[in-house]
Design brief:
This protein is an alpha+beta fold and about 300 residues long. It has a single domain, classed as 2-Layer Sandwich (Alpha-Beta Plaits), CATH 3.30.70.1230. The strands form 4 sheets. Strands 5, 6, 7, 8, 9 and 10 form a 6-stranded mixed beta sheet that branches. Strands 12-11-13 form a 3-stranded antiparallel beta sheet.
Length: about 300
């Protein structure tokens, strides 16, 4: 399954046409080449026919518990409806990743997305980061509202991707962080990315708030993670309470579904605690009906 198209985006006086490709591939982290009827538009270049590594942002995203869901649906004969549900959710969420003047290279395997883009060599990579984070929070929120909780990691370094090859340490690092360290439905950052974020923050004089402070939070284990609920501020002024309520309902349903599973249940307790923290800290006088009750404790998230 694949889709291909062009997305036109106007930004200020710029009129930029972005080419993007979606490819579903097999073999875990190995990419399947595009077939002849799909045009290759990789952002990564070759020198004398050889792939060239470029300093890049790289993200590895995964749907929490999706493999277990596939196995369960196989046993119950409900695989088709689960596929349809995921396809509809992804079709709704994926346009958030392709809007804006920043282009990407993708590889998609079932519930996994490998996403990479070379960092702007001639401008400020903070600008690249800003476009990415805004797209990412919208994508993550859309998927969660469709009952697909996202876990992932964001790394940076020398990387190369085309229709045949996905290569570079950032992929190995992001996959390791997602599978071993993220644990909860959150998108975390490599140590090099943390240093990069720290550099961005240093650009702002005391008393001036960096935009990324609204998009990132710090967990009690010291990990930075993407504050995707900020996407409910769609008009930049008022929160979308309908989205917030749906977010609450989806989490409560997951808590109820997994309450007897000591391995899975804490992951959705984390989601509930994050939801309540956002309601408390990002919404002035948030009405009580939007909070998730009965948790018995609260997690000490903090601002960066």
């Amino acid at each position: 399954m694949f889709a291909q198209g062009k997305y036109k985006y106007c930004f200020g006086k710029l009129n930029i046409r972005c080419q993007f490709n979606f490819v579903v591939f097999g073999g875990g982290l190995c990419a399947m080449p595009l077939y002849a009827n799909v045009v290759s538009m990789s952002l990564y270049k070759k020198t004398s026919g050889n792939p060239k590594l470029e300093n890049s942002f790289f993200l590895f995203l995964d749907v929490l518990g999706f493999s277990a869901e596939i196995i369960y649906n196989h046993k119950t004969g409900d695989s088709q409806s689960n596929l349809t549900k995921f396809n509809q959710a992804f079709n709704m969420a994926s346009p958030h990743l392709t809007k804006g003047p920043k282009t990407w290279d993708y590889k998609i395997f079932t519930d996994n997305i490998a996403l990479a883009t070379p960092i702007n060599k001639f401008g400020d990579d903070e600008n690249d980061f800003g476009f990415i984070i805004v797209s990412l929070i919208e994508y993550q929120l859309e998927m969660v509202l469709a009952d697909f909780f996202i876990r992932g990691a964001w790394s940076v370094g020398q990387f190369y991707m085309d229709n045949l090859i996905v290569y570079g340490y950032p992929l190995i690092e992001a996959y390791r962080l997602e599978s071993q360290k993220a644990i909860n439905p959150r998108i975390i950052f490599s140590e090099d990315m943390k240093s990069t974020i720290k550099r961005y923050l240093s650009y702002y004089a005391k008393g001036f708030s960096a935009p990324l402070r609204a998009h990132l939070l710090k967990d009690i284990d010291g990990e930075l993670f993407v504050n995707y609920l900020f996407a409910i501020y769609r008009d930049n002024e008022n929160p979308d309470y309908s989205a917030l309520l749906k977010h609450k309902n989806v989490i409560e349903a997951r808590l109820n579904k997994h309450k007897a599973n000591p391995k899975v249940f804490p992951k959705y307790v984390w989601s509930a605690e994050y939801h309540n923290f956002f309601c408390q800290k990002f919404i002035t006088k948030c009405p009580v009906q939007y909070f998730i009750h009965g948790l018995g404790s609260s997690r000490n998230f903090s601002f960066i």
